Each structure stands twice: as C-alpha cells, then as structure tokens.
C-alpha cells in the first residue's frame, strides 16, 4: 500500500489521512490553484475492479447535481494513475463514527445531530435520492460549527414519484445498518423508508453507545434485522427518555409501513424533544408521529383479507419443518393477489429461519425445458452466497457429500454454484440419459438444502405455462420418499386453466396417488378488507371510509388489482380535495359535466370482451368520480366480469 509520502495527485497537496474503510481511503488536502481545503476519497486497491470504479463515478455523477445543505458536495473526479479520486468539500468535519469512538454523545448533542440528519434526509428524499447506506461512517459532523452532512452516495439511487428503488436479491449496504428489505430476503421493494431504518440503527448507537444487533456474523445480522426486536434504548440505559426510545424503535420497525413515513414528522418529534430538553433538562413522553402523513401515493406492502389463506400456508410450512414434503396449489384470476400472498408467506418463512425463493414460468418460454424452475433455484444459490464463509464452507461439504461429482451438471445451468463448490466437469451422457440423470441430481441438490432448522419453500407462479420437463421434475419432487422439510407452493391463473392443461393433469394424477395437496382459492376481497386498505392509503379509520369501500367493491368486483388501479387513478382527488364520503368524491352517473376519461388498461387478451373490465374511471371538473363504465350498461358489464371471475376462480383443478 502506498504511504502518504508517495501519494501524488496533480493539482492537489495531500496533507494527512483521516479515515479508511474496507474499500476506500480518505485524505485531507489542499487544491493548489486556490488553496481550498478538500477531502480526497480514493479506492484502496491500486488496480480497482471496474465495479468499484463505476461506484465512485456514480457517486460523483449523482452528487454533482445536488446542491443540498445536508449533503457533502463533490467538486471533481480526478485520476491518480489507475485509481479515480473523488474530490469533495471539506467543511472541517469528521465522521460520526470517529466522534463516537472517542466519547459518548451527550443528549443535547444527540438531538442537535439527529435533527440535522432528519432535515438532510428530507432534502434528499425531496430531491428523489435514496441513500441506502446511511451509517455513522457516512455522516460527517463539525462540532464547532454545528454542521452535519451525509456523504458516500456510491450505492444511492434516483427514484421516481413513488420513491421506490427495486427489489434486491442480495444484501446492499453495510450489514449492521441495512433495513430488512435491503437484505434481499424479504422479496419486498426498497424505497426511501429504508433510510429511516438505517437512521434508526444509527440513532440507537448514538444514544446507547452500542449497535442494536452487535453480531459480526452475516447470517445472524440478517436474521436479526428481519426477525429480532432490539432492546429498547431506555432499557439499555435508564437515563434515556422513553419517548426517544419510541422514536428510534419506530424508525427501526421491521415493516416499512410502520416506520415514519416522512422526515418532516421525525423532525417535528425531535424538535419537541429538543425544546423540552433545552427548557427543562428533561423530556416527557408525548404521542409521537402525529404529523406523519405522507403525500406520496403508496399501496402498503401488506396483506389484506387473506388471513385464512396465509394461515393455511403457514401450517403447511410448519408441517414441512417437522419433516414433511408439502404442496399448496393457489388459484385465482389475474390480479387476485397470488404474488402478494407469496411475498407475505416468504416474509414469515424468512423470519422463522427458512429459505424462501420465488419464480415464475413464462408463456413465451413455455417450450424451453425448466424455464422457470432453474431461475428459481439460481435465486436460492445467490441466497446461499450471501452467507458467511463458514456457512458457505458448510454448504460446500454438504453438497459435495450429497451430489458429488454430478454437481457439474447443475453448474452448467447454475454457474454461481461453482462459487460454493468449486468447478466440476459434467458427466458425458446421451440426451435421454442426461434428462433422467439431471432430474435425479437436481433432487439430490434440493434434498441437501432442506433441513429441519431451515426448511425450503419454493414458490412457482403461472403453472399454466409450465414446460413438460419442469412438471416431470415437480412430480418426482412430490413423490420422492426421501424428500423432507420442503414446501412447494404452486399458483396459476384460474381463467387460463383447463382440464387439458398439463399442470391440471399432474394435479389430478397426484390426487389419485393420494399425495397431500393444499388447495387455496383466492376469492374477491370483502368490503371489510377493502375498507382497511383504503383507510391505510388515505390515513383515515376503516369506519370513516366504509361507504367508499363498498362503492369500490361494487365497481371493481373485489379484485385487488382493480382496487389498486382505482385508488391510484383517483389519488389526486383524495389528496387535493380531502376524502369526503358522500360529499362529492363518489357521485352518481349524472355528477358533473365534461369528464376527463382515465382508462386503466389491464391485461388478459384471451378473456371474453364482457370480462375485460379494465375499469373506466371518470373524474368530473367538480372532482366527483362517476360510476365505472357509466350509465345503465355499466351494471351489466360489471356483473358479467364479476361472474366470469367467479366462474374462473371455481374452475381450478381438484
């Protein structure tokens, strides 16, 4: 590694090293042309990987357009031989991590820094930036000037109006501070609220002097973020006011919907705490999050009206954990919420120590062998690769013991597996022999993963498009006497299933062989569930929106997808005029003139015309929403569509 004396960057004088991380080194220096103090961030490796270079370039490109008071501003991107160097403003601060290493923060300083961090987050989120790696090492504070700024935007993301980033399949950010959804195990999208969780972990550490989950083991950390509740800060240190504990724990809620929904509300609560402390040197408890109403339209990432179905799947999972091989068959029309139900069972499986992976078959690739199955198992391999070196070594030994030299056959279709077991050479077999042998090898691979402490749940959607090879393997999986600790959840669109479909035939055959099957049909949502959903979206009580919920049920047939479309299309009216049920938001066919037509185009090219009820919504100049489809004919079209879905939902196999 180069020493300070050997570092040379044209146009800059490097004075001293102030910090270092796993991938970068941080120096102070001066810009020669004007003597301006600067911070220089360069990659640790003399020959960095393209990915590392790309991250630093991304950090510069994203940051140079941000003129935010709470963000460290980049000046330029220079090169020191092979390494890019990010030149940034130096306002005389140091990382919060270094400050905390020296001393425990007094409460007054904690509140001061926390308020500025909340304000900086509000600025960032308003600018459409999600940081994704907020932690003490990326927070810079100058205690003399009372300035606090956020740095390191190497994995930050620009987002749209809904502020959603993506659904990761592996952990992003620093494990000790990432949100449950950032672990890649929750099958949930990451949005701006991930920063609130990371801020909560940071504030916890600032208050108590320790992290909520102190483990260094990656598996334990991921599990803790997903499933363990932290010890409240005021229990760790009784001198901490309980209301500050409440604020921190709300930020650290496992579900994003339970966290603060806006940085403004967080600032409001912290400001009350600060005012009380400055005037009375104590902080009395008060109701927090009273100002917490987001102006962003968002369907909560939670399940509505599917408690019985979720309970049935959870019972099947527990039986699998006790040694069974279980299969569940979900049926329902397009938009009935099969994927949402799978996400929720996946969250519960993960919190209870199981492995959950999801995949789907494609209509375009229905003639390609294993088209959805292999992609699902690849996701499982990627999940294993996120574990500690000790765990990966354990899987290496176990897979080699159970599959042996035949691992080469699997590596051909799942190359990432070689990162666990090493490279191997496939057996040279004829085509028919390969197919039969591959089935058996894949069974042995799955058997090796399924363990009592870590049952495996495979969710496969769109079985109406499954290829013959995948169906044959699923049959072998379900009838394999040695298979244990596994739950297979299959799902299909009921309106696209017939008795002649290969999957329908397989299910009938399994029934004839008395294989244990759990059939779950997703019915339209009842008005009670719709009311709870609408209440969560509009920040009202279910009782306040009951009339609206009944109207939505009538207009959408209780289809979750159509309900979401209805709410999304009409959110501006709800937001701008207030939700006044019976007072102008929902009106009759004759309400208002010159309507603006907003058509929610939905899928299903193969459905009969009467069932293609992509709900038409009319918004009049007065803000009233007319009956879907309008006029007397609307009832017939809606009834026909609902009847079709009802028939389709009941037409599933078995």
The CATH class of the largest domain, by name, is Alpha Beta
| pLDDT averaged residue by residue | 84
The percent range for strand residues is 15-25%
Poorly predicted runs of 5 or more residues: 580-654
In the residues, how many domains can be counted? 4
Which quaternary structure do these chains form?
single chain
Helical region count?
21
CA-CA gap between termini: 67 Å
- How would you describe the shape? globular
Strand order of the largest sheet: 1-2-3-5-4
Q: Label the CATH architecture of the largest domain.
A: 3-Layer(aba) Sandwich
What does this structure look like?
- With 654 residues, this protein is an alpha+beta fold.
- The chain has 4 domains: 86 residues, Phosphorylase Kinase, domain 1 (2-Layer Sandwich), CATH 3.30.200.20; 187 residues, Transferase(Phosphotransferase) domain 1 (Transferase(Phosphotransferase), domain 1, Orthogonal Bundle), CATH 1.10.510.10; 215 residues, P-loop containing nucleotide triphosphate hydrolases (Rossmann fold, 3-Layer(aba) Sandwich); 123 residues, no CATH class.
- 41% of the residues lie in helices and 15% in strands.
- It has 21 helices and 19 strands.
- It has a 5-stranded antiparallel beta sheet, with helices on one face. Strands 14-15-16-13-17 form a 5-stranded parallel beta sheet, sandwiched between helices.
- A hairpin with a 3-residue loop joins β1 and β2.
- It is globular, with a radius of gyration of 28 Å.
- It starts with 11 loop residues before the first strand and ends in a 5-residue tail after the last helix.
